Amino acid sequence: MSKTFFTPGPTQLHPKVKEYIKTALDSNLLSISHRSSKFDDLFANCAQSVRKLLGAPDKMPLFFLSSGTEAMERIIQNMAAKNTFHLVNGAFSERFYQTAKELGKNAQVLQAESGQGFNFGLINVPDNTELICCTHNETSTGVMLRKEDLESLKSLNPDKFIALDVVSSAPYCELDFKHIDATFFSVQKLFGLPAGLGVLLVSEAAISKSLQLMSAGTSIGTYHNFPTLISFAKKFQTPATPNVLGIYLLSKIAEEYLNIGIDQIRQDTITKARYIYNFFEQHQQFKPFVDDRRFRSATVITLNFKGEIKKLKTLLDKHNFEVGSGYGEFKDKQIRIANFPMHSLEQVKELCTVLDSYPAKS
Ligand SMILES: *Cc1c(COP(=O)(O)O)cnc(C)c1O
User: Fold this and answer.
1) Residue 69: which residues within 8 A CB-CB, separation 6 or more?
2) Taking residues 253-262, what's their average pLDDT?
3) HSE of 39 in the Cβ direction (CA atoms, 13 Å)?
4) Ligand 1 cavity residues, CB under 6 Å
5) How far from 55 is each of 50, 177, 258, CA to CA, in Å?
6) pLDDT at 87
7) Distances (CA, A) of 66 to 9, 29, 186, 284
8) What is the pTM of this model?
9) Substitution site in 96, 139, 166 for ligand 1 pocket (most atoms within 8 Å of beta carbon)
10) Three-class SS of 40-75
11) For residue 220, which of 204, 225, 236, 316 is within the disulfide window of CB 3.0 to 4.6 Å?
12) 141 alpha carbon to ligand 1 midpoint, in Å?
């Protein structure tokens, strides 16, 4: 019997992936030139479906990269000469911050404890900041930022760029593109696809900034800098040979999600998340890690676990389930449950029942 992966990514593949990989193989798509009109159509279709799904403006520049982590580097290089500011509350927001430091930026940071959100009313962004970097859903801890907080951040800092990592929340996240100058995701999370493709959307203002930096002699990278990416994207192409299979699969799954409707996807996500949090609210062995309900993630649910993680994994394995381990120092003390569109309420209920049976006699 096949397994159901509740891991936060790579995760359960979308049930249609097999069929679409077969279609891609049968249609010669993987042999065509990435400079052909057939590829241009694929690029255009995929970009349009993704924009529509995320609620992005029709013409917003969209780039295909290799991963979410690559998008962080591209953003730092192209959107700030010097001064960046980071909200850090876990491993992925820390990666964004470290990237800025490694690229020699003057990176300032506001750090929150693991499992905590931020009090946005009290955030003091230094005046000279060019770029503020935030992680919408901190996958390592299961903390999700609120829409209204992100909006207030922009209204208090209208002259600064805001870059938002939505890798483990897109397309569930509701984005207001008036407040965002760069946002990115990768496909192995909520899209349920094989890894190896990142998507970055940026504002026209962000592109202008990269051109300014380039003419001032600041290094903005090489083949994947914004000016090069946009010059190819305008022709519906990529600077280097891209992950054509990944782009094809993303276009198909984005269409699937558009057909279901983003409101339905959000509603289902909330229903499943509530079920899990409620199930474990008063539990003996499992307890939601994030205390403040306002910051509890709908897409990655982190539970503290009292017991032997090895035994738990064996129990889950026997029932053909896999969940994520805790991140870093929490490896043996927590589990993380991905709640993505491929996961049905039925599967979620079954998983909760199996977890509840720990320590079941084997
Ligand atoms: C998984 C993840 C990343 C890294 O994405 P890659 O595609 O593996 O580079 C970045 N940020 C968040 C929030 C993530 O969950």
Assistant:
1) 95, 99, 198
2) 98
3) 20
4) 9, 67-69, 92, 135, 137, 139, 165, 167-168, 186, 198
5) 8, 8, 11
6) 98
7) 15, 19, 8, 42
8) 0.97
9) 139
10) HHHHHHHHHHHHHHHCCCCCCCEEEECCHHHHHHHH
11) 225
12) 13
